[in-house]
Amino acid sequence: MQIEDLISILPEIIITVVAACVLMIDAFGGRRTHRALMLMVVAGSIAAILVSVLARTDGGSAFGGMLLTDGYSVFFKALFIAIAALSIVLAFAQSKDVPFAELAALVLFATVGMLLLGGTGDLITLYLGVELTSIPVYVLVAIKRDRFRATEGALKYFLLGAFASGVLLYGIAWLFGLTGTTNLKDMSLYVQSQGADNPWFMLGLGLLLVGLAFKVAAVPFHMWTPDAYQGAPTPSTAFLAAGAKIGAMAGLLRVVMHGLEPWQDMVLPIVIAVAVGSMVLGNFVAIWQQDVKRLLAYSSIAHTGYMLVGIAAVHAQAESGSLMQDAVAAVMFYAAVYALMTLGAFAVTFAVERRTGGTDMENFQNLGRSSPLLALAMLIFMISLTGIPPAAGFLGKLYLLQVAVNAGLTWVAVVLVLTSTVSAYYYLRVVVNMYMVEGKPRALPVAPSTAVGAVVALGVLGTLVLGIYPTGVLDWAQTAFEEVGRLAASP
Amino acid sequence: MESLPILSLVLWLPLAAAVIVILLQDRRAMFGVAVLGAALSLLLSVAVWAAFEPGAGMQFQESFAWLPALGIQYALGVDGISLLMVLLNTFLFFLCIIYAWATVNDRVKEYLVTMLLLEVGITGVFLALDFVLFYVFWELMLIPMYVLIGVWGGERRVYATIKFVLYTLFGSLLMLVAILALYFVHGNSTGTYTFDILQLTQGTYGEVFQLWAFVAFFLAFAIKVPMVPFHTWLPDAHVEAPTTGSVILAGILLKMGGYGFIRFSLPLFPDASQLAQTAVLTLSVIAIIYGALVALMQTDLKKLIAYSSVSHMGFVTLGIFSFTQQGLDGAMMQMFSHGLVTGALFLCVGQLYERTHDRLIANLGGLAHRWPVFAALFLYFSLASIGLPGLSGFVGEFMALVGAFATGVRVFGVLAVFGIILSAAYMLWMYWRVMLGSLKEAHRRLEDLSVLETAVLVALALVVIWAGVQPQAFIQIFTADTSGVMQAVNAAQVAGLVPK
Question: What is the ipTM of this complex?
Answer without folding.
Answer: 0.89
